[in-house]
Amino acid sequence: MSLLTRLGLQRSERERAAIESLRLAERLMRAGARIDEITSAAEPAVAVDVRGDLVASAWRSLFQGNVEDAQRCAYAAADDRPYDVDSRIVHGTVRLARNELDHAEHEFEQVIEEFGAEADAADGRRAVILARGHAPLDDLPASDDEWQAAARLLTTLWRLGGVAESRMAALTGGHPDGLALLRGALEDGDGTL
Predict the structure, then answer these.
(1) pLDDT tens-digit readout, 5-35
(2) Residue 114 phi, psi dihedral angles, 5° rounding
(3) CB neighbours of 46 closer than 8 A, spacing ≥ 6?
(4) How far, CA to CA in Å, does 193 sit from each of 39, 100, 147, 161?
């Protein structure tokens, strides 16, 4: 189930359209789409306050590249709803975008522990492993496709924050297999390194 699927159904048409635009932006982000495609997809949600929904606000800010505002909203969402998968996933994802790997890892591991094999949390956890410069399979066994999905997620978050080049440079001593996955994901995205 998508991160934003569980948002309430009692919404106005504008709110439903805004949430659907965020869902599309999320799918694009996870697929490693170009940044302009992601921000364009999220555009209908920019002017709509989804009844103060902090999860939606965090995603909206992240898709616009405003990582600081995304962190504020994501933290408030996780604090307000600590037992909610969506709030924990968005908080972990924003922490990952900010390169706060211990916090991101904690959020993803808590979701996995409390709610089972949540695919978005597992992708996030694998992305943390790659962000640390470790090789695939070091800590969390998964298929090649799952590792590629994690690399796409991580590099897209880096591109959204405008830090892809500096983050890759910081990983120069990382495991060659992990670095190759990240380079491949960057090249498949918008070619930005």
Answers:
(1) 544 444 578 888 888 999 999 999 999 899 9
(2) -85, -30
(3) 60, 64
(4) 19, 21, 19, 13
Alpha helical stretches, state H, the chain: 13-31, 35-46, 54-63, 67-80, 85-97, 101-115, 119-131, 144-161, 164-170, 176-188
For 103-119, how does the pLDDT look when each residue is reduced to its tens digit (9 = 90+)? 999 999 999 999 887 89
Cα angle 69, 75, 76; round to 5: 90
Q: Report, at the CATH architecture level, how domain 13-188 is classified.
A: Alpha Horseshoe (1.25)
Alpha-carbon Rg for the chain, nearest whole angstrom, is: 16
**N-to-C CA span, the chain:** 31
What does DSSP assign to residue 135? P
The answer to whether 65 and 38 are in contact (CB under 8 A) is no
